[in-house]
């Protein structure tokens, strides 16, 4: 599917506030309510819009300690990668896991309450996973930009 300028504007509006009504969106896009509704349904059918979520302020739920953890596996066989990935997916503290190139194999974005909770996570959960060779942790000092809007 090729996105036109109106589709892109609609996506930006939805990514900024997905609770806007089709009426509100139609006014911003100078389209009929039906046209906006049909465009949204098409974007959903095509898988461009995957989901609608509520973004939570992590500091208000006492989970403001963000850690970027770099991991090396002991081997790079398909079996080791698949096993690690299936296990890390189950860890609630891990918000993101990316298989990357370079010195490390994976980068995890971990969210916990504080250093003590991170240590507990590292010792009891993360390093108990099979095939991990080494880890390196970096702690977020401040969040300069965090956007979920594409375009």
TrEMBL record:
Residues 3-66 form the HTH asnC-type domain. The keyword Phosphoprotein does not apply. Pfam families: AsnC_trans_reg (PF01037), HTH_24 (PF13412). InterPro entries: ArsR-like_HTH (IPR011991), AsnC-type_HTH_dom (IPR000485), Dimeric_a/b-barrel (IPR011008), Tscrpt_reg_AsnC-like (IPR019888), Tscrpt_reg_AsnC/Lrp_C (IPR019887), Tscrpt_reg_HTH_AsnC-type_CS (IPR019885), WH-like_DNA-bd_sf (IPR036388), WH_DNA-bd_sf (IPR036390). Keywords: DNA-binding, Transcription, Transcription regulation. SUPFAM superfamilies: Dimeric alpha+beta barrel, Winged helix' DNA-binding domain. It comes from the Bacteria. Transmembrane segments: none annotated. PANTHER family: LEUCINE-RESPONSIVE REGULATORY PROTEIN (PTHR30154), TRANSCRIPTIONAL REGULATOR AZLB (PTHR30154:SF34). This is Lrp/AsnC family transcriptional regulator. It comes from Flavobacterium azizsancarii. The lineage of its organism: Bacteria, Pseudomonadati, Bacteroidota, Flavobacteriia, Flavobacteriales.
